[in-house]
Amino acid sequence: MTAPQFFRRPVMTTPRTPHFFRIALLTAALAVGGVAAQAQPGPRGGPGGPGMMAPGGLFGGHMDHMLDLVNATDSQRSQIDAIFKAARQDLAGQRDTGRKLHEQMATLYTATNVDAAAIESVRAQLSAQHEVASKRMSQASIDAARVLTPEQRAKIAEVMKKRQARMASRQAG
């Protein structure tokens, strides 16, 4: 039995960055930005305040660009690349498991009788899977942040603070 159209992903005709790589970039952005935000004074002179980073994450999917902005060395770039490559390899098996769980969820919702207990069970499995991936990517992000100098992390936080201000002004106007 196949899932109804609204549960299927659209077929992409252009090459896309692998899903876990995008997650890795976002998680790296959050971790590096979080570390940098702690070094920045917040609105009342304390640590970095809430909303320090833009919703798209520190790198916004453009890690090379951000590493260019902070003049990352070739050594730093290769170390960060190796960190996220290892994390992607660690999580490679989860993609198929996640796909199967999503298909199972779609099947449960389209059954003649909706089984709330079964849906909750699959939801819990999906949540646990996301938690494992989040923890792994968070650790990769911490490791990547440690490769950068405090000055580089501060520069990234500064760029993201400006980006956030631009986004906030667009939403307000």
UniProtKB/TrEMBL annotation:
Where would you say this protein principally sits, based on its record?
periplasm
Q: Which UniProt keywords apply?
A: Periplasm, Signal
* Gene3D superfamilies the UniProt entry points to: 1.20.120.1490
In the UniProt record, does the keyword Signal occur? yes
Q: GO CC: one term?
A: periplasmic space
Superkingdom of this protein's organism: Bacteria
Task: Give its localization.
Answer: Periplasm
For this protein, the record's Pfam families field holds: Metal_resist
From which residue to which does the signal peptide run?
1-39
UniProt protein name = Periplasmic heavy metal sensor
Similarity field = Belongs to the CpxP/Spy family.
